[in-house]
Write a structure and sequence with these properties.
77% of the residues lie in helices and 0% in strands. By secondary structure, it is mainly α. The chain is elongated and about 40 Å long. Keywords: Membrane, Transmembrane, Transmembrane helix.
Length: 64
């Protein structure tokens, strides 16, 4: 995949991870995920994977 596609995928994963986290802790309602400890835990993990794809992977490739 090109770096642009990977970056966009990372940003999407970060946004979804944030949404899942907010739903898991009950700040965003309207879905079965609301108030679920699983999503309160899985959301940050998904967001971190997105961060790695969007930012850290690009920085690592520039260095060598």
């Amino acid at each position: 995949m090109t770096s642009s596609v990977v970056t966009v995928l990372g940003v999407v994963l970060m946004a979804l991870g944030l949404l899942f986290t907010l739903q898991g802790v009950g700040l965003v309602g309207g879905s079965p995920m609301t108030g679920s400890p699983f999503w309160a835990t899985a959301g940050p993990v998904i967001a971190l994977v997105g961060l790695w794809l969007a930012v850290l992977r690009r920085v690592g490739r520039r260095r060598g």
